[in-house]
Amino acid sequence: MPDSPTDTRHAAAETTLPLAGIVVLDLTLARAGPTCVRHLADWGAEVIRIEPPAFNDGLGGAREGYDFQNLHRNKRSIALDLKTEDGKAAFYKLAAKADVLVENMRVRVKHRLGIAPEQVHAVNPRLIYASISGFGQTGPYSERAGVDQIAQGMGGMMTITGEPGRGPMRAGIPFVDLTAGNLLALAVMMALWERQKTGKGRWVHTSLLEAMVFMLDLQAARYLMDGEVPGQAGNDHPVNIPMGAFETADKPVNIAASSPKMWAQFAQALGHPEWLDVEAWKTARGRSDNRKDVNAAIAAVMKQKPSEYWIDLLERIGIPCGPINKVDEVFADPQVQHLRMAMPMHHPERGPTHLVSSAINIEGHESEVRRVPPRLGEHSADILREAGYSDDDVVRLRGLGVINGE
């Protein structure tokens, strides 16, 4: 049954989305796990968020705040106490009919609660059990708690971010959490596809540390294959020059002109063809070894004109370039607006507002806010009735404190 005007408006669309008919139990908290589930919810899965009664997983902020709202759209919520026998029995009734379970508890917690993968698969062998941890499900660090910045530090990211000599620097977004969530969503989809052939579920998992090392990408391969330990390069590309940020008369821009052809075009466009005759700058390695001199020469020229002048000029000759925007400028950008990256939502308390859209495009389908993020336990009674509980059962469980909400 639709739960709000937003639900009513989009209930029909939900049944046509790619993941329509997939039931997901969401036992996640913080950010990495919810990021995974958000992909599934946005594309039509029926997501049941299972939360402890009196719980507020707002990442330190309000449940009605921007962070919780952006992470938990398109879900229903049941407030269920898994530490009680009645609560665990209700959980297993839901798990018996679910397709996917996603959790990011510490390793020992799911065993203590009695909902570890082997226990759930004994009830529903078709279920895809998906886990995110800080450092892996096994190994010497498996019992440690992990958060994004810890993983950035342990995984090498903070030693290759920022300006040389300024010390370690974190990235400006929790990208390890986000990457781990993205990777787990991909693993869920692969396991669902495999289940089409085998009829059996899988335990799929990743960790913040694995996601961080994976995201080192070329910097990791640079070390593994050539033995080079990367350092901080500031706004410059670690090996390709010129590729980085340059001040103009009004605001900085990024340019990427490191290939031999682009370097020649770039020098001509800036009115300095003599740069091509500088012996030390003739090769990519030479420009990299002399990056301070190369960048200083470019900066002196680019400061003479505004950003739009350089963007228009370089774009015409096929050299990638673009402004360095503040967040408000990002959402004012015409291309960002064309891509509808601000997803409209009508919130019952906040009124008309926006969340961050899915970056996945599936032609013929559209992700949108079909359900506003749920209040704690907003759908407890409905979810239990759908699982086979009677009205009297619901009243009894509410009286015992096993559930709360509506």
- Name the average pLDDT: 94
Query: Would you identify the CATH architecture of the largest domain?
Result: 3-Layer(aba) Sandwich
How many domains would you count in the coordinates?
A: 2
CATH topology of the largest domain: Rossmann fold
Approximately how much beta-strand content do the residues carry?
5-15%
Helix content: 40-55%
CATH class of the largest domain: Alpha Beta
Number of helices: 18
Alpha-beta content class: alpha/beta
Instruction: Estimate the global geometry from the Cα principal axes.
Output: elongated
N-to-C span = 14 Å
- Major pleated sheet: 7 strands, mixed
Low-confidence stretches: 1-10
Count of beta strands = 12
- Spell the H/E element sequence: HEHEHEHEHHEHHEHHEEHHHHEHHEEHHE
- Our Rg estimate from Cα atoms comes to 26 Å
CATH superfamily of the largest domain: Crotonobetainyl-coa:carnitine coa-transferase, domain 1
Query: Which strand order spans the largest sheet, edge to edge or round the barrel?
Result: 6-5-4-1-2-3-12
